[in-house]
Structure formats: C-alpha cells, structure tokens
Amino acid sequence: GHGRCAEACPVGAITIGLGDVASRPDIPVLTDELETSVPGLFIAGELGGIALIRNAIDQGARAVEAVARRAAPRRGAGSDILDLLIVGAGPAGIAASLKAVERGLRFLTIDQDEPGGTVRKYPRRKLTMVQPVELPLHGPLDRQEYRKEELVEQWEEIIRRHRIPLREKVRLTGLERLDGSFE
What we know:
Elements: E1 8-11, E2 14-17, H1 53-70, E3 84-87, H2 91-102, E4 107-111, E5 127-129, E6 134-135, E7 139-140, E8 146-147, H3 148-161, E9 166-168, E10 177-178, E11 181-182
Parallel strand pairs: 3-4, 4-9
Antiparallel strand pairs: 1-2, 5-8, 6-7, 10-11
C-alpha cells in the first residue's frame, strides 16, 4: 500500500528516510557515523545518495574510523573472523580499505566487478575529478584533474602499493547476524 511515515519508514532490514533528501525515498537514514538502522552496518559513497568522489572518499574513511573505535581486540591468529568486510571498491571502498590498513583492522574488500565503482562505467576519457583529494594512509592524489582511465589506473596502483586484500568478481548476496557478528 501507500502508507505514510512521519520520519522514516522501515524497508526490509534498513530504515529508509523521507526527510533529508526530500524526494528520494530510497536513501537510507544514517547516523553521523554513517551507520544504518542495522547496528554494525555502515553505508558510504553513492549508495548513501550523493555521487561525488570527494564525498565518497570522506565517508569511506569516516565509516571505518567508527568501526575501528568499536573494534574488539583481535581474535586468535587462526581465526577467520574479520573486523570488517568492505563491499565495493569504488572511491568509498578504496578510502575505507586504506583507513582499515592504517588502523590495523583485519578486513577484506570485495567487489562484484573490478576496482573503480561507477567511475569505471563512465564514458571513455570523461573528466572525473577537478578538485584535490586526500586518501587515508596514501595522502593527496598526484594531480587535481583526472580522466576516467587515469583515475582507475591510479586506484589500481594504490591498491597494489598498500596491499589491500581485494577479491574481484565476488558479490555480496546477503548478511545474517550471528553471535554479535555478520555472516
């Protein structure tokens, strides 16, 4: 039906907001730390509603900083439990991965495709960035302006240089809460 909600409506497992981004009922309601209505689940970048590379980089780093502040002490060396799973290797996912390396988190980054996110799908030679940007751990990008191909190449180099544990062609199909963690 067409029921109405004053502040936010629950849709599936994540609460979707109808306030801040007025005509966008598909935008999740997030805390200041970018946490969804599902505790421990954070959203950064384009999925949060603003498709700006600089914004995505900032959000990816902020979300992981929040996770790092909460992270329990590491489990035993033989454990396969991660502190964090980063889904997507676009600008937000790359920044999140760099922040996770910087903070010493045990993590994995997965992407259903290849690094670059939506930028990889832009038209050939499209100018993608015209403002300086700073990445966690890495520092500022070399240049202020990048065409699509140059930016994707730069990200691939950063992933290699900082040894980000990235698995390409891996898709997240669902999450379940299990003993205080997600599976």
